[in-house]
Design goal:
The structure holds 2 protein chains of 2 kinds. Chain A contains 3 helices and 4 strands; from the N terminus they run E-H-E-E-H-E-H. Chain A is α+β, with helices and mostly antiparallel strands. By secondary structure, chain B is of the alpha/beta class. Classes of the chains: A alpha+beta, B alpha/beta.
Chain lengths: 90, 604
């Protein structure tokens, strides 16, 4: 099991579009993916779960990955947060 | 034509042809005699065919657990519903050119694929034995509540979108029920039907219709009229006396229903058919005459339309376009909520209405009708409906307004937009504000909506009738909705048998309010029309002209009747009628005066 701490860099927070991008990428990996935020744990492959966190810009989340490809998944998903989910936002 | 003899209610019929108007015809039927029964005429036409009794298990709305045997079937059905829905969304997503719209469609697809959501739904069905629609509502609502609790603008907006997805899902689920197989050419006898069912079976299967319930404004009847299905409503006989396959005549123009017709019944009906065809050809002749009074004053008669199938009647009645397009039916069909789907419906209506144009009323529905699971209101008529609901449920309003603004380019000067249930001028100001916002957004896309698109207010709440003039600051026209105006003015619900008699269009207060609204409109220099049921009553239509109203809208089948009076009379006569009504102090005197007026000038 791997844990990584990431920061939401998107100005509008982890709203619908970044959440959508996140689950799409997460689905590419076999490992189980949980996100922890302020004591809440949600399934990182569930867009509704992620959206209900309503994490704002600057929020620190913990990504928890568990499975055969956990290392690649963690690297890939962490980079996604760094790159603001490759969304060019106003 | 021989008139059938009348019998006492519910008794054994007497030979040769007898009539009964009882509510409980339970007696065994004598095979050799025709039995005349009576209901309320609802959609004209004559038809003889084999009876089909459409009995259905009662629809249970409260949460009743499903049996363990049907759990797997229910899970399968839900899986299929979600598959169909996904395919539909993928289709919509593909058609989006705008990246933002593509993203939105993508988000919706992700939500449908959400593993947690699917598992929650499955668990509700599998473990808690909830019926599929209840499982969907509960699973979605969990997320919706969580998002709403976050108190962040985007989360609240998403909650609205997710609620919309939920509603579409439920609609699809409910549509996935298998319809009963009705043989072709049947005379269907049912408690009541939905509009969807009438449209789905069509005239081929439902060749005539008997409804135990169903007010004349029920959607099933509107659909039956549009499709030319002879219909008798309020046919309260118990089904026990009837048998599947029995021969039966239905006369939708008179409300006559004849069981076990004999050869003499058949002859009689054939004579009626000829007579009805003669009336029809006279109506067609009147329809082609110019719309002006005997003294040469022009007036405009438009049609009230609700579904695409009615457009054929629009041409036939020679209506000058559509004076009221009811759009809330589309809300019952979730795929039509999308702007693209709405567009094609509106386009068909506007094409058929050209060059006169169409007055399109924004969705006029109550909360529980379009948002399943919304709290039941103690007093829905005084509740969350019309413009009140639209200003809260912005996605509905925006989608509809966007569709109409886009269309205004194709049909310049022909799109009129009508706001329902206005009770306060500021509601109209907010509607105009939203129109500006959408116009600006469309301009950024390079689309320039027609700046002359007219927005009008429904005058159906007494407060609106009293404030007609001040509303002129925000609208280009007014339209009086008489049904609601009567019910709100007289505080009487027509559907409530205890007080239905108080609902009376002869009431002086109703006429005073209409008069006030007309004067207000005149002060504001904006036109005013009537699109309510009173307009289809020829004598009232004449009184409206006498009050200074120039435009009336009514069901297309009523136009010929109204027109035939209006072209015979003169403005002097109509003004005498209007002034006379306004001077009468009570219901009975108004009623008496109007019938004397008709007699005096020989109008029936």
């Amino acid at each position: 099991m791997i844990q990584r701490t990431v920061t939401v860099r998107n100005e509008a927070g982890l709203h619908a579009r970044p959440s959508s991008a996140l689950v799409r990428e997460a689905a590419k990996f076999e490992s189980e993916f949980t996100i922890e935020f302020m004591g809440y744990h949600v399934n990182g492959k569930s867009i509704l779960g992620i959206m209900t966190l309503a994490a704002e810009c600057g929020a620190q989340l913990t990504l928890i990955l568990d499975g055969p490809d956990e290392k690649q998944a963690a690297d890939h998903l962490q980079a996604l947060f760094e790159n603001k989910f490759n969304l060019d936002e106003p | 034509m021989k008139k059938p003899a009348s019998g006492s209610p519910g008794t054994i019929p007497h030979p040769p042809d007898t009539q009964s108007s009882g509510r409980d015809l339970q007696t065994p039927v004598n095979r050799s005699q025709a039995i005349w029964l009576k209901g309320i005429p609802a959609s004209s036409g004559l038809y003889k065919g084999a009876l089909y009794l459409l009995e259905r298990p009662e629809v249970v709305v409260p949460v009743d657990p499903i049996s363990s045997e049907s759990v797997e079937e229910e899970v399968q059905r839900l899986r299929e519903v979600l598959r169909v829905f996904t395919a539909r969304l993928e289709d919509i997503a593909e058609k989006q050119d705008h990246p933002a719209a593509q993203d939105l469609a993508q988000v919706q697809l992700e939500i449908l694929h959400d593993p947690d959501l699917r598992e929650t739904i499955r668990t509700f069905v599998h473990d808690d034995h909830l019926p599929g629609d209840q499982a969907v509502i509960k699973a979605f609502n969990k997320t919706i509540r969580a998002l709403q609790a976050r108190n962040i603008a985007w989360a609240t907006e998403r909650a609205v979108d997710i609620a919309n997805l939920r509603d579409q899902c439920i609609q699809l689920y409910r549509q996935s029920e298998q319809p009963a197989p009705i043989p072709k050419g049947s005379v269907v006898f049912a408690e009541e039907l939905s509009m969807g069912e009438v449209l789905q079976y069509g005239r081929e299967h439902i060749s005539a219709l008997l409804l135990r319930k169903g007010g004349l404004t029920s959607h099933a009847i509107i659909a039956a009229q549009a499709m030319g299905i002879p219909t008798v409503a309020g046919f309260g006989f118990s089904g026990n006396a009837f048998q599947n396959g029995q021969e039966i005549w239905v006369d939708g123009s008179t409300g006559d229903v004849v069981l076990n017709p004999t050869s003499s019944t058949d002859q009689q009906m054939a004579a009626r058919l000829t007579q009805q065809q003669e009336v029809e050809s006279k109506n067609e002749l009147d329809a082609s005459k110019p719309s002006q009074t005997a003294c040469g004053k022009p007036f405009i008669l438009r049609a009230n339309i609700e579904i695409e199938a009615e457009l054929e009647k629009l041409q036939k009645s020679k209506a000058q376009g559509v004076g009221l397009l009811r759009t809330e039916t589309m809300l019952m069909d979730p795929k039509l909520r999308h702007p693209q789907q709405q567009l094609s419906f509106y386009r068909a209506v506007l094409k058929a209405s050209a060059p006169h144009g169409a007055t399109i009323r924004l969705f006029d529905a109550g909360g529980d009708k379009i948002i399943p699971g919304s709290p039941t209101e103690l007093n829905p008529f005084l509740g969350w409906r019309g413009v009140r609901l639209l200003l809260d449920e912005r996605h509905l309003l925006q989608n509809q307004m966007e569709a109409l603004l886009r269309l205004s380019i194709e049909f310049p000067g022909q799109v009129r937009l009508l706001v329902p249930m206005v009770s306060e001028p500021s509601e109209l100001r907010r509607i105009q504000q939203i129109r500006l916002e959408i116009t600006d957004r469309l301009r950024e896309e390079g689309i320039d909506p027609d700046p002359t698109l007219h927005i009008g207010a429904m005058i159906e709440v007494p407060s609106a009738a009293l404030l007609t003039e001040s509303m002129g600051a925000y609208v280009d026209f007014y339209s009086i909705g008489t049904n609601d105006l009567i019910q709100y003015t007289l505080a009487a619900d027509r559907g409530n048998a205890q007080v239905a008699h108080l609902f009376d269009s002869h009431h002086p207060a109703v006429w005073q309010l209409i008069h006030l609204a007309v004067r207000g409109a005149y002060q504001a220099r904006k036109p005013i029309s009537v699109c309510g049921e009173m307009a289809s009553h020829p004598v009232f239509a004449a009184a409206f002209l006498g009050l200074g109203i120039r435009e009336l809208s009514m069901p297309p089948t009523m136009i010929a009747n109204v027109k035939s009076l209006l072209i015979q009379g003169s403005m002097d006569q109509f003004e005498e009628l209007a002034q006379g009504i306004l001077q009468r102090p009570d219901v009975e005197q108004v009623r008496e005066f109007t019938s004397q007026w008709s007699l005096k000038y020989g109008f029936q």
